[in-house]
Amino acid sequence: MSTFPPPDPLLAAEDLGKRYGRRDALNAVNFQISPGRVVGLLGRNGAGKTTLLNLASGILLPTTGKCVTLGVGAADLGTPQLSRLGVVQQEGSCLEWMTVRQHLDFVASFYPTWDAGLEKRLLSELELDPARKIAQLSTGDRQKALLLFALGHRPSLLLLDEPMSALDPIARERLLKIFLDLLRDEGTTVVISSHILTDVEKIVDWIICLDGGLLVEDASFDTLQESFGEWILTSSEGRLPSAFPESFVLSCKGGGSQVRLQVRTGDPEAAQRVAAQYGAEVTTRRISLDEMFPLLLRSRKAATPAARL
Amino acid sequence: MNRKFRIFLSVFRPVRTVCLLAFYGAWFPWSIVNTARAMHFVPHLAMSAEYFLICAVIGPMISGFILAAPFHDAMHASLFPLIPGAARRLANWHALCAAEYAILCAFVLRLLDSEIPFPAVFGCALLGLSLGAANVHDRRPKAIGRTRILLGVCLLAACGAIRVGDHFRAAVIAAPAVFFVVPAAVGVFLFGLGYSRSRARARGRNPYLSIVTLIYCPSALRCRHTQKIRQLMQEGKADKTSSDNYAVSIDGSLRSWLAAHHRITMIGRKRSGGSMQLWSFFVGVGYPLLGAALFGLVLNRTFGVAGFWRQLARIIAQVAPAGGSSSDEFMGEACVFIPLISVLAFVFAGLIPTYPAIRFPVSRRRLASLVYVSSIRQFSTVILWYLAGTLSVTALAAELSGSRVIPPLLSYAYVALILLPVVPLLKTFNLIIRGPLSFIPIVLIAVLVALVGIINQSAWQPWVLSAGGIGGSLSVLAATLLLYWKIVRWRCCSGDLAFAPGLLVR
Lengths: 309, 506
Description:
The complex is a heterodimer. By secondary structure, chain A is an alpha/beta fold. Chain A has helices spanning 49-56, 79-82, 100-108, 116-125, 139-151, 169-186, 197-203, 221-227, 270-277, 289-303, 305-308, and strands at 11-20, 23-33, 38-43, 64-69, 72-73, 85-88, 157-161, 189-193, 206-211, 214-220, 228-234, 249-255, 258-264, 281-285. In chain A, the strands form three sheets. Chain A has a six-stranded mixed beta sheet, sandwiched between helices. A four-stranded antiparallel beta sheet of chain A has the order 2-1-4-5, covered by helices on one side. In chain A, strands 12-13-11-14 form a four-stranded antiparallel beta sheet. In chain A, helix 6 (169-186) links the parallel strand 7 (157-161) and strand 8. By secondary structure, chain B is mainly α. The two termini of chain B are 39 Å apart. In chain B, helix 3 packs across helix 7 (165-174) and helix 18 runs parallel beside helix 21. Chain A binds chain B through residues 20-23, 25, 57-61, 75-76, 78-83, 85, 87, 89, 91-98, 102, 105-107, 109-111, 135-136, 146, 149, and chain B through 3-4, 6-7, 10-11, 13, 16, 74, 77-86, 88-89, 197-198, 201, 204-205, 207, 213, 217, 219-220, 223-224, 226-227, 230, 234-236.
């Protein structure tokens, strides 16, 4: 049986760093994103998500290391690569004086693969009036327009920086459906940065998490879902402690007869072992990405020497 | 209509472009005529050399910066560098426009001067037109340094060309191939530089809109302000509180509200408050100094280096005897029109609307006071510093030339006071009318200034300096200020603030 070599990554960072004045926005970040993957880029405000996406799209140039997008350094992105790239910028500016229709025609004229059918569908599903001027659009409608400009040519790599922050729940739901269709039909690779994690977890299969410009997590969502969990320990004797010394326990609430532990461990037997150790019964459940996010940052801090002290 | 051509038109906003052309159409011939008049006073410069310099050097250089504005407006949108091939296509369009313009210049000059070779004029004109293409409009200190160098080189080249105008023309006739190939090659290089990948990227990062766009498109101004805050925050030059009021403590007095408003307008930069004052001061000082530089480069062979400063002072102070040399006359006129242009510039600056602190817990009545007082304070500061600059130069010139007479230049500085009522009127107009009609005030100003300029100075100068003139001007000013206050109060107290034209609520 022959084995195929892994496909070349569509986006890769090698010791990537970006400095604004004296402040490090990104520091020694390394990752690779394979084709077809849907990556959730998570992080708190100022963690470096927008900077990373701007580096990937060639808007910014790295201070150290390199960022390779669609096989070339981001500084060298030319027409062939840009034709395969779709970008939605946070608060991106367009040609404000144009109507949505004019702007669509303008953008479409540069892409040989522009899909007029998809454009029509997006206009209809996102309920965007093509006769309105960009400058007169509300924040949400402006975001929809930016999504249209980024999706119309069916890109291979889609970089989305807070694409849904201003959309209403109905528009978000429709947009997620469009994303899922694109992923199913085209195998588009998506990197999405968003704080609306309930939406993100519906489509992502990989998580990259940044904190203070450092990469703190780069793992598949399935792996994370398997390793993170919540255990509810119940003891009829009521002698459960309020703190647990095990390193994989990230938080502990309660004490006495019942405690809730949030843990990170790859050991499937760990829950039973801990329950047996304390003479308790255990119920486990998976946690959502919303619940997981603070634990991702906490587990990184717990791993640093300063935190151990 | 061809689809591609329709798209091309939409990039350049046909309506705006027509307005732009109407505006510059009025001013451009005026500036060309004055340039011609200025060169007419350059000693020993033949008429044919004047034509050559205007059509092949100075005219294209000025036009190049105007022509580049709509192209650069499009390129400074953050979306632009991400569109594949867009920069290249825009470069092609820009180059095509420039080439057509250069052909027109060469054709016109050919009609005026049959000796001059067509290709050489084309090459020189193309070079002049390409200078504007290379400008990145980056306002960071490092980039400003480069822009200054570029402008300095242009100015020196233009002055040098004027100084040796006859020889320059003769050289062009003698070696037309050289004057076609070399300038055209440099021009193409500058076009390539202006539209290169790195510059396209830099433009996308740098929110810029030409002054004309700012006037016509308030929403674009709002967008630019937001982008500027983000950019400054990224660079560590402004903090998050720049867009809100909590950076300063507000004790309820109008003074503290004004401080908060000022902080928002200046995007949290500590020293920005002084930049407008410095700008207006240097408008007053800078133009006479620029005149001095040109004077030195172009005309000093009349007086020699030793007598240059004394002669310049005499000319500025207008104490040169009547019937003096033609160069005296020219410099005197330059000193008349330059303050007029400066006043015009500050009136335009007055069109940039203020940002009311609408997010503050502020009552509508207090908001009206805030908008009104901040506008008046801004304009008063500009005028006072402008007058300070002009008066400094005039006083120094009078002192150097030993004159004790009030220089007539002062009366031209006083033009600022005559035009002052225009500012509250414009602000009033902007509060009432929105949309495409907002360009009307610009036309009104242009007409007014043209009228002031056209009427012979001897007709209005004595009146301006008389008690009746001063009283009349101040009365008109007071009336317009009162009108402005009434409209501001009406708009703030009874209007829909979210859509108030001229208020630019964020």
